């Protein structure tokens, strides 16, 4: 009995080890998004140095904040010595959309408190889009976390490289920030293909256009609020129709 204990321990340890197929699968899935994230991270690193901060601040922003567009805003707020309450309010408004992400993000498939905490921290637009458009039958919670780790690594690596290379990059270079727009266009196309419908994308575009016309300074919360309201209304009407047909 005592001699079999090491063997059983090894079996358990082997069972808990992450399958290499999931690690490789997450790498393959994250690479197309990483192609957009990495140059965008470079742009952030360059911005950090050009704003007068030390290069290591790029790693601080990308490691601890990791909020995409908010990090670009935060660089300007920090260098302008903006009071902390205003920074907190700005962060809330810019990332308020993450509240709605929680409604459909498959957090229940992720096991373990540390993995869940990291997944919530690393819930970016790209990670959310990849998670909700994936087949839950074939994509496990571990693969979602691995994908988020890869995306985070692309972001940190790009920012670090940008901060180091900032002294050789001209200040008047343009176009690097378009990587974010191009990335979201690709993610939107993939989401439309996965959902196989135009109703939801058209609602999103309509809400964005109307919000911009109404108040460009508060476009994001207005657009997200209107979009969520339409989604809830659509859900209620669909449920009523299904109940009526039954």
From TrEMBL:
Chain segments annotated as transmembrane: 29-49, 56-78, 84-103, 149-169, 175-192, 197-214, 220-237
Recorded topology in the membrane: Multi-pass membrane protein
Main location: membrane
Alphabetical UniProt keywords: Cell membrane, Membrane, Transmembrane, Transmembrane helix, Transport
Domain of life: Bacteria
One GO cellular component term: plasma membrane
GO biological process: L-valine transmembrane transport
Entry's localization field: Cell membrane
Keyword Transport: yes
Keyword Transmembrane helix on entry: yes
PANTHER family: INNER MEMBRANE PROTEIN YGAZ
Family: Belongs to the AzlC family.
Protein's UniProt name: Branched-chain amino acid ABC transporter permease
Annotated source species: Rhodococcus oxybenzonivorans
């Amino acid at each position: 009995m005592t001699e079999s204990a090491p063997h059983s321990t090894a079996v358990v340890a082997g069972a808990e080890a992450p399958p290499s197929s999931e690690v490789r699968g997450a790498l393959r899935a994250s690479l197309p998004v990483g192609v957009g994230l990495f140059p965008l991270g470079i742009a952030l690193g360059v911005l950090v140095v050009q704003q007068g901060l030390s290069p290591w601040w790029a790693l601080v922003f990308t490691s601890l904040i990791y909020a995409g567009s908010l990090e670009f805003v935060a660089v300007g707020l920090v260098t302008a010595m903006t009071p902390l309450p205003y920074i907190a309010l700005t962060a809330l408004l810019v990332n308020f959309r993450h509240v709605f992400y929680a409604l459909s993000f498959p957090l229940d498939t992720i096991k373990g408190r540390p993995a869940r905490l990291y997944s919530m921290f690393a819930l970016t637009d790209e990670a959310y889009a990849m998670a909700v458009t994936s087949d839950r039958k074939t994509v496990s919670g571990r693969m979602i976390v691995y994908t988020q780790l890869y995306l985070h690594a692309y972001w940190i690596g790009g920012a670090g490289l940008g901060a180091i290379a900032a002294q050789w990059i001209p200040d008047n270079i343009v176009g690097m920030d378009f990587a974010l727009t191009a990335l979201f266009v690709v993610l939107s196309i993939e989401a439309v293909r996965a959902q196989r419908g135009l109703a939801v994308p058209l609602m999103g575009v309509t809400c964005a256009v109307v919000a911009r016309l109404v108040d460009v300074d508060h476009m994001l919360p207005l657009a997200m609020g209107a979009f969520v309201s339409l989604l809830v209304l659509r859900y209620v009407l669909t449920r009523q129709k299904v109940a009526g047909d039954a």
